[in-house]
Amino acid sequence: MSIEAVFLDLDGVALHDNQIVPGAVEAISYIQEQGVPVMPVTGRDFKRSLWLTEPLGFKEYGVFNGGAEIASFTSQQTIWERRMSRDSAREVADLLIPYSVRMHVGKGNKLLTESTPLADITGDSLGIWAEFPTAHLTEVEVILNVMQDKHNLQYHYNHGTVEPDITGVHVTRHRADKFHTTRLLMRWLGINPINAVAVGDGDSDIPLFNAVGRGIAMENATEKLKARAHHITHDVRQRGLEQAMLEYVLQS
């Protein structure tokens, strides 16, 4: 298998507690020196994550906002996006606020309590990220299923990767996800998906694994993602990304 590209999630893979983990910068740099592009695929917003992605040394493109945005590191500009309407974002946020302990709408707008005005959502949105106690999963899923059908949206969970009893959910417009957008980027760059590798840690990385030929899960990954992985590398805090790059990518 001749590797043409590596796609990796950030949090839980190259980052832990908003810090770049040891070995990540060196591993990414080494793979790129071999002529293999390394590109992030993350729920984070492009502009608001530059303080982390620039030190990590990404050189080409990345997928952001859970698949709603493709950006260029060369121009530092968004080159493609797929948004949900303002009214859709307002309705979803309004219904999720009572259950959420933290919420981000669009490019970092924060809705933390029921009293926060939805008027802050003034335009179409790249997506909604909400964190809620896992005990409310049933109620939240009912809401999301109704909103998905009504507004042509989709959602992906991250169970236990935020905190043990907290579930995160990323809501985006239909087909604005890690599968479709990563495949779109590969098509633009002439990359054969079979010859691409992904590294991830959460349930939201399952679509990313489905988009490539080989998936590598971190030891700290969810059990669902590990079940889809071809390899399991060390924990993010034990140089797992470095092992993934040097042992599983280079030796493929």
Name the descriptors.
2 domains, Rossmann fold, 26% strand, globular, 31% helix, 252 residues, five-stranded antiparallel sheet, 8 helices, alpha/beta, five-stranded parallel sheet
Description:
- With 252 residues, the protein is α/β, with parallel strands linked by helices.
- The protein has 2 domains: 151 residues, Rossmann fold (3-Layer(aba) Sandwich); 88 residues, no CATH class.
- Helix content is 31%, strand content 26%.
- A 5-stranded parallel β-sheet has the order 4-1-13-14-15.
- A hairpin with a 4-residue loop joins strand 6 and strand 7.
- The mean pLDDT is 92.
> Tally of extended strands?
15
Number of domain units: 2
Strand order of the largest sheet: 4-1-13-14-15
CATH superfamily placement of the largest domain: HAD superfamily/HAD-like
Query: CATH top level of the largest domain?
Result: Alpha Beta
Overall 3D form:
globular
CATH architecture of the largest domain: 3-Layer(aba) Sandwich
Low-confidence stretches: none
Q: Strands, helices and their partners?
A:
Layout: E1 5-8, E2 15-16, E3 19-20, H1 24-33, E4 38-40, H2 50-56, E5 61-64, E6 69-72, E7 77-81, H3 86-96, E8 102-105, E9 109-110, E10 128-133, H4 137-151, E11 153-163, E12 166-173, H5 178-189, E13 196-200, H6 206-211, E14 214-217, H7 223-228, E15 231-232, H8 240-249
Parallel strand pairs: 1-4, 1-13, 13-14, 14-15
Antiparallel strand pairs: 2-3, 5-6, 6-7, 8-9, 8-10, 10-12, 11-12
Short description:
The chain has 252 residues and is of the alpha/beta class.
